[in-house]
Design goal:
The complex is a heterotetramer of chains A (157), B (320), C (107) and D (91). Chain A is an alpha+beta fold and 157 residues long. Chain A contains 6 helices and 3 strands. Helices cover 63% and strands 12% of the residues of chain A. In chain A, helix 1 (2-19) packs antiparallel against helix 2 and helix 4 packs antiparallel against helix 6 (147-156). Chain A starts with a helix and ends with a helix. Chain B has 2 domains: 1-68, no CATH class; 119-320, no CATH class. Helices cover 73% and strands 0% of the residues of chain B. Chain B contains 12 helices and no strands. Chain B has helices spanning 2-13, 17-37, 41-65, 78-97, 113-123, 129-137, 139-160, 180-202, 211-228, 231-237, 240-263, 278-319. Chain B is globular, with a radius of gyration of 22 Å. Chain C has 107 residues and is mainly alpha-helical. Chain C has one domain (2-106). Chain C is built from 4 helices and no strands. The chains are: A alpha+beta (157), B mainly alpha (320), C mainly alpha (107), D mainly alpha (91). The B-C interface holds B 179, 181-182, 185, 189 and C 77-78, 81, 84-85, 88.
């Protein structure tokens, strides 16, 4: 129920933001569209039997995203210097790291955060073990300190 | 333009069909930016949705049924080359007759275009001229196009589909549902894409968009679902029967609007009679026929996609 | 104030363009698929962010700013996912990541 | 100003295109197409800001979505075909 409500709110905001025309006709059509989509996504859930909150609701989320942005900028600069230095500056490695998150959504968030920071990419997920490919030793160290892991886990509470 | 030419040439020369399909994606992306540059926003949107998205998927579907390598053609290539050169030459010769680019005295600017541009605001009351031309002045043409799409859907259906007959031993079609990240991300994204499709559908009057593009985007969202959680789940969400029903319902809606306007005493597809105010009538009429187009396009796309993937499954069963 | 915004957006746009070209160079120079993936993620993340933020500063209506923000969000949302699925299926298809020689000896 | 940005985006697209044509693996090609797709989204945004028309950003938005879908579709197709090839080899 809670999930349905949040989906409705998100869809309504999406429609209003995109539309830019607030005549009764278009608002009505928007309401009909949202209804149709809620119906369809209900059916999809019935079929794949997967009901889970698709968004992380936590007051920590904005702080996390800001921290992630800073990380992205830092690692971008790192990769950029490596690109211009050429092949000599890279030493690709593959390693495994444990994720401490409980829910699937947070694990996905963690894995995607790893991928989003250039220099590290999540190759595969097996349970709570991620296989990560890093462009350099420094990138590997950065993931292994587990700071990102801790920060994502904090979102679950 | 340079990119277009290079891509086109490499499409011709690469023999790996899979790479060719991928390059086609680039080709349509680039040509769409070209259209935007020429201010043909609606065309660009169509190219974006159809060229880059659906046609890639459908070509891949075809590839899955045939083989990946291009066959070496057995007959010589001189004759086809001649034909192509002659046709190309003729076309270039024909363009010489055409007025210079953006010459204000060329006939296209004197025939119906000025009327479309100057009066569509008053007559139709729809800001997007392309939509009013497509939906109102050229309503017949659009109806024809919709029927063509419908016929294409039927054609593929009769070639590949087996009306109602399902394979008895259902080989599970492969899915990516073991793929955790994709599953979670797509789950959140699909409703948004669906809504976006509907937004394009209903805002065709104001911005670029309309039935064709909306239908394709809507279908793309459901195809994404089918890709990630097997085709069967998608067919459980929207059964093939409903799709076949909708396919005809869209065309009927379009034609029905025409018939209703005739019954109300107007011309076929003359929307002025739909409401007391002719401008409102036009508005509702365009909205309705665009809806018809959208429904048809969505269901035809889905039906083609499902047919391909069913066919594939049936063939794998037969092989075993 | 106007000049300040303009200069800021130019800086963003130029930096974004530079990063994009860097990423492309990386795409060209790096030895194997997995390392190229890193270079591509440079163009997908910071370069895109900067260019779109620069454009948002130049935009003339609120509507456009919101829509550009949506574009930004969607790219940020989908690009790691497609990068990951690319890497995953490349790995499963048996493509071996290129590793430095010393790494091979260690493992 | 916008010209410089457009040109730099075009340069990126051309380099990515060369990568797409060269290969060597299919995944490189898909990756290059993905990059071209993202750059097209940016190019469209630049064009629409230059023209000052908000509705043109819609196209960029559609691209961003379609680009994602087609990458996923291509990947699935390839995994699928691989399974089938494996089946044939077993027989």
């Amino acid at each position: 129920m809670k999930q349905l409500l949040s989906l409705t709110v998100i869809l309504a905001v999406f429609w209003l933001v995109n539309s830019g025309h607030y005549t009764p006709l278009l608002l009505g059509l928007g309401a009909i569209s949202i209804g149709l989509i809620l119906y369809l996504s209900r059916r999809m859930e019935h079929v794949d039997g997967e009901v889970e909150p698709s968004i992380v609701m936590s007051i920590h989320l904005p702080f996390y995203l800001f921290w992630l942005l800073v990380e992205i900028i830092k690692s971008n600069l790192d990769v950029v210097t490596r690109v211009w230095k050429g092949e000599a500056a890279i030493s690709p490695t593959v390693f495994k790291v444990k994720a401490s998150q409980k829910s699937d959504v947070c694990r996905v968030l963690y894995a995607n955060s790893i991928t989003m920071t250039p220099g590290t990419i999540t190759l595969d997920i097996d349970g709570d073990t991620f296989e990560v490919h890093a462009l350099s030793e420094e990138g590997k160290e950065g993931v292994l300190t587990g700071e990102m892991d801790k920060r994502v886990s904090k979102l679950e509470r | 333009m340079g990119i277009l030419v290079v891509t086109g040439l490499s499409i011709v020369f690469i023999r790996d069909l899979f790479a060719v399909v991928i390059l086609f994606g680039i080709y349509s992306l680039v040509s769409a930016s070209f259209f935007v540059n020429l201010d043909a926003v609606d065309v660009a949107l169509t190219e974006a949705a159809v060229g880059a998205g659906i046609s890639t998927v459908l070509m891949l579907g075809t590839l899955a049924l045939t083989s990946r390598r291009e066959k070496k053609s057995s007959h010589g290539s001189t004759l086809p080359l001649m034909v192509v050169v002659v046709t190309g030459g003729a076309l270039i010769y024909a363009t010489l007759d055409m007025p210079y680019f953006s010459d204000p005295s060329d006939p296209i600017h004197h025939h119906v275009a000025p009327r479309y541009i100057q009066q569509s605001g008053e007559e139709i009351g729809v800001p997007n001229i392309v939509t009013s031309v497509l939906g109102s002045y050229r309503g017949f043409d659009t109806l024809g196009e919709t029927v063509v799409i419908f016929a294409a859907g039927l054609g593929v259906l009769s070639l590949l589909g087996r009306f109602g007959k399902r394979p008895e031993i259902a080989l599970p079609s492969p899915s990516m549902s073991h793929h955790l990240i994709l599953r979670v991300i797509a789950k959140a994204l699909i409703p948004l894409i669906l809504l976006y499709g509907l937004y394009i559908q209903f805002h065709g009057d104001y911005g670029p968009g309309g039935g064709f593009q909306a239908g394709v985007i809507f279908a793309a969202a459901i195809i994404l679902y089918a890709i990630i959680f097997s085709t069967e789940s998608a067919q459980k969400v929207i059964s093939p029967f409903v799709i076949h029903l909708l396919m005809s319902a869209g065309v009927l809606l379009f034609a029905g609007v025409g018939v209703v306007t005739m019954l109300l005493g107007g011309n076929f597809l003359g929307y002025n009679v739909l409401a007391h105010d002719p401008v409102h009538g036009q508005h509702y009429g365009i909205l309705l026929i665009e809806l018809g187009v959208g429904i048809t396009v969505t269901s035809v796309m889905l039906s083609i996609f499902f047919d391909f993937s069913d066919r594939k499954r049936i063939r794998s069963i037969e092989e075993q | 104030m106007d000049i300040f915004l303009n200069v800021l957006s130019w800086i963003c746009l130029l930096a974004g363009g530079f990063l994009g070209i860097t990423g492309a160079v990386g795409l060209f120079r790096f030895p194997d698929f997995f390392t190229r993936l890193h270079a591509a993620s440079v163009t997908d993340t910071l370069s895109t962010f900067l260019i779109i933020i620069g454009l948002m500063l130049q935009a003339n209506s609120l509507m456009m700013i919101i829509k550009l923000l949506l574009v930004l969000l969607i790219i940020a949302y989908t690009s790691p996912t497609s990068a990951h699925s690319l890497a995953k299926s490349a790995l499963h298809s048996g493509l071996k990541p290129f590793l430095k020689d010393k790494e091979n000896q260690n493992s | 100003m916008f010209t410089i940005i457009s040109i730099s985006i075009l340069v990126v697209m051309i380099i990515a295109l060369i990568r797409a044509i060269l290969g060597p693996t299919l995944y490189d090609r898909i990756l290059a197409v993905n990059v071209v797709g993202t750059k097209t989204v940016l190019l469209l945004s630049v064009l629409s800001v230059t023209a000052g028309r908000g509705d043109m950003v819609d196209i960029a938005l559609v691209y961003a979505l379609i680009n994602f879908i087609s990458v996923i579709a291509v990947l699935r197709f390839f995994e699928y075909n691989k399974e089938q090839q494996a089946d044939v080899e077993q027989q």
